[in-house]
Design goal:
Blueprint (H helix, E strand, L loop, with lengths): L9 E2 L2 E8 L5 E5 L5 E6 L15 H5 L9 E5 L6 E4 L5 E2 H8 L4 H20 L12 E4 L2 E4 L10 H17 L17 H7 L10 H9 L48 E2 L11 E2 L15 H31 L1 H18 L4 H35 L5 H18 L5 H14 L2 H24 L8 H18 L1
Antiparallel strand pairs: 1-2, 2-3, 3-4, 4-6, 5-6, 7-8, 8-9, 10-11
Helix pairs in contact: 3-4, 3-6, 4-5, 7-8, 7-10, 7-11, 7-12, 8-9, 8-10, 8-11, 9-10, 9-13, 10-13
C-alpha cells in the first residue's frame, strides 16, 4: 500500500483492522458493514473492469461456487485504491504443508488431485482461468485443497491451468513441482498417465478440467499414508520451487504475522499482482493434525453442505415461478425485485450496485420474449388438439419469464448469493430439516396453485381483459 493509503481507516465500506502484508497487493484484515471479518487485497493501480479485459471480473469470480475454491465476496477495481474482498480460509499453503510434513500419498493424494481438478472445473465453468495455480495458491483445510488467487492473471488460458494442475499434483506427491511424473517412484502408477496427458506440450492435447475431475474420481491410490518429513525439514523447510508462486504477502517473503494483542490470521496465500487475500487462523492445523483415512468425511461434509444449499435455492426458484403463474403481475414484480436486490446485495460499492441493476434490466428482454412466445405456442397447440384457457396461457408465459429472471443465460449471481445465505442452514441437520419442510411445503403449494387456480392479474385487471382479448383473437385467426 502506498503512502497515500497507509493511514486509511476504511477502504470502501470496510473498516481496516490490521495490516497483514506489504509489497505489491498489500493485505489487510477488515470488517464489513455486517460485522464479519474479511480479507482485503489491494489491486495494482489502474485495474479496471473485467469486461474490458484489464482487471478481475468480480461478478464472475463471485459466481464460482465450490468447496475447493475460496469465496470472493466483492470488491471494486475502479476504486482508489482498487481492491478485492475474500473470506477467511483456515488453512495453510500446500507448499508449507509439504515442506514441513513431507509429500502426500495414497487416498490423501487422490483427494488433493480430485479437489484441484474440481476447483479448476468450477472456475472454468464461469469463463475464468486461474493462471497461477501452484503450491502457494492452494490451501490445505482438513486434508482437502482450497484454491485461491484465481482470475487475476491477464491472458491466461485454461490449458495452462491443466498443466499447472499436473505440476501441483506432482509437487504434492514428490515435494518437487519440476519432477518428471514418468520417472518418479513417488508418483502412483494409476495417476501417472493422467499427469502425463495434462503435461502434454500441445495445449490442445491436454484434457479439460471436467475430464480431469471425472478421471480422478475413478482413481484408487490406496489408503492414506502418513507423511514422513524429510531429514532436511527437521532443521529448515526446503524452499518451494521457483516455478511455484511464493507463499507470502510479497514475493520471496514468508507469511507475516499480525501484530495484535488478540490472535490474528496470517497471510496464507501466494502474492502476485492483484492476488486474492486469503488468511490462515494461527494454529488452525498442527503437524499432528494431518487427517488419516477417515478425513474423507470432512470433504463429504463440505460437498453435502453445498448440495443442500443448492437444493434449498432451487426450491426458492420453484416457489417464485409458481407465484408468477398464479399471480402473474405480482409474481413478476417480486421476481424482478428479488433478483435485483440479491445482485445488489452482493456488491460492496455504489458503482457495483448500479451495475447489478443494469444486469437485471438486461435480462428483461429475454424474459419478455419468452412471456410472449409461450402463450402463442400454447395457443397454436390448442388449435392442433386440446384446449387451453387464454388467461392460463398468459400465466404460463409469466412463469416462463420468471424462470428466465432466475435461471436464464448469464444469470448466476442471485442464485449464488442465495446459496451462500443457505450455507449456515445447510451445515446443521436440524436446520436443514426445518428449512426443507417449510420451503418444500411452500413449493408444493405454489405448484398446485399454479396448475389448479385461475390466475389473477391483480391489480391490473384492465390488462387481464386485454390479454384475454388478444389471445382469443390469435386463436380465432389460427383456426
Amino acid at each position: 500500500m502506498n503512502g497515500e493509503t497507509s493511514h486509511q481507516e476504511h477502504i470502501g465500506p470496510f473498516r481496516l483492522l490490521t495490516r497483514l502484508g506489504g509489497g505489491t497487493g498489500a493485505v489487510h484484515r477488515a470488517t464489513g458493514p455486517d460485522g464479519r471479518d474479511v480479507a482485503i487485497r489491494l489491486l495494482p493501480a489502474g485495474s479496471g473492469s473485467g469486461a474490458a479485459g484489464s482487471g478481475p471480473d468480480i461478478a464472475r469470480m463471485r459466481g464460482v461456487l465450490s468447496p475447493y475454491v475460496v469465496d470472493v465476496l466483492g470488491g471494486d477495481p475502479a476504486a482508489d485504491p482498487p481492491y478485492l474482498v475474500s473470506r477467511l480460509v483456515p488453512g495453510r499453503p500446500l507448499g508449507d504443508d509439504v515442506a514441513e510434513r513431507g509429500p502426500v500419498a495414497g487416498a490423501e493424494l487422490r483427494r488433493v488431485a480430485l479437489g484441484l481438478a474440481k476447483a479448476l472445473a468450477a472456475i472454468h465453468r464461469e469463463g475464468l482461468v486461474h493462471g497461477a495455480l501452484g503450491p502457494g495458491t492452494v490451501l490445505i483445510v482438513d486434508g482437502s485443497p482450497v484454491v485461491v488467487d484465481f482470475g487475476l492473471v491477464p491472458g491466461a488460458e485454461a490449458a495452462g491451468d491443466v498443466r499447472a494442475w499436473a505440476a501441483t499434483v506432482v509437487f504434492a506427491a514428490t515435494g518437487d513441482a519440476t519432477a518428471d511424473p514418468a520417472a518418479s517412484a513417488a508418483v502412483p502408477g494409476a495417476l501417472r498417465p493422467l499427469l502425463l496427458a495434462a503435461s502434454a506440450d500441445d495445449p490442445a492435447a491436454r484434457p479439460g478440467a471436467e475430464e480431469l475431475a471425472a478421471a480422478c474420481a475413478g482413481l484408487d491410490l490406496g489408503p492414506a499414508v502418513p507423511p514422513v518429513p524429510s531429514s532436511a525439514s527437521t532443521h529448515a523447510p526446503p524452499p518451494v520451487p521457483q516455478s511455484a508462486p511464493p507463499a507470502g504477502p510479497s514475493a520471496g517473503g514468508p507469511p507475516v504475522a499480525a501484530t495484535s494483542p488478540d490472535p490474528v490470521p496470517t497471510v496464507a496465500s501466494a502474492s502476485s499482482e492483484g492476488s486474492v487475500a486469503v488468511l490462515t487462523e494461527p494454529g488452525a492445523e498442527t503437524p499432528a493434525a494431518r487427517p488419516g483415512p477417515g478425513a474423507d468425511s470432512g470433504h463429504h461434509d463440505l460437498a453435502a453442505t453445498q448440495g443442500w444449499a443448492r437444493l434449498l435455492t432451487a426450491t426458492v426458484v420453484v416457489i417464485a415461478v409458481g407465484v408468477a403463474v398464479t399471480a402473474p403481475v405480482m409474481g413478476l414484480v417480486l421476481s424482478i425485485a428479488g433478483v435485483a436486490v440479491l445482485r445488489a446485495a452482493g456488491e460492496s460499492s455504489a458503482r457495483g450496485r448500479l451495475s447489478a441493476l443494469g444486469r437485471t434490466l438486461l435480462t428483461l428482454p429475454y424474459a419478455a420474449a419468452l412471456m410472449v412466445a409461450v402463450p402463442l405456442v400454447l395457443v397454436a397447440l390448442s388449435v392442433v388438439g386440446g384446449e387451453i384457457d387464454a388467461l392460463s396461457a398468459c400465466a404460463f408465459g409469466a412463469g416462463a419469464g420468471a424462470a428466465v429472471l432466475w435461471t436464464g443465460p448469464g444469470v448466476r449471481a442471485p442464485r449464488a448469493l442465495l446459496e451462500r445465505m443457505f450455507l449456515p442452514v445447510a451445515r446443521v441437520p436440524r436446520r436443514i430439516a426445518v428449512a426443507g419442510v417449510v420451503l418444500g411445503a411452500l413449493a408444493l403449494f405454489a405448484v398446485v396453485a399454479a396448475m389448479s387456480l385461475t390466475p389473477s392479474f391483480a391489480p391490473m385487471y384492465g390488462l387481464q381483459s386485454s390479454l384475454k382479448g388478444w389471445i382469443d383473437q390469435a386463436e380465432a385467426a389460427l383456426r
